[in-house]
Amino acid sequence: MSDFGKPALADLIRTIPDYPKAGIQFRDVTTLIADPVGLRTAVDGLLWPYLREPVDVVVGIEARGFILGGAVAHELGRGFVPIRKKGKLPGKTIGQDYTLEYGVDTIEIHADAIAPGQRVLVIDDLIATGGTAIAATELLRRSGASVVGAAFVVDLPDLGGSQKLREKSVVVHTLVSFAGD
Ligand code: AMP
Description:
alpha/beta; Rossmann fold; two-stranded antiparallel ribbon; 6 helices; 29% helix; globular
């Protein structure tokens, strides 16, 4: 037994109403990752299933997926590959259009970042409609990867993204759920 109270991850995530536009409840994980217990608990929570699964490389989605995915890759002893917004990667890229909860965008990966057959774990902070994660999965599969899983700190299950990703045969792992959008 410990005399220290461990904060719940959900309590460390700040909600900002009407950001970036009216009606969106923005689930801000910067308050969670600024907290030493929060960051370590989140990273451990994301990676533990993959201590027993073969993962060759960790992919993080810009931008908060870089922070969490980089830490997960380090802890798993694997390399890290970024998926970025259009125009940010310097080398030859392949891209995929996707619909965000609040807009339309394109994500890209370096064309040579993934070797055919590599087993990839995808990390992001949050899954909402699933548009980003599904586009990342398509991009990775076009790169020849096998997507062994996708892990997120926050799930917004009412928006259906985690379910849609599962329907694409991706094993989904999430730590905290918030009702509504
Ligand atoms: P989606 O493609 O709809 O699953 O949206 C997921 C991406 O958009 C993630 O990279 C999130 O960081 C961001 N995002 C979408 N909705 C929210 C929200 N309500 N709060 C915080 N981030 C969000």
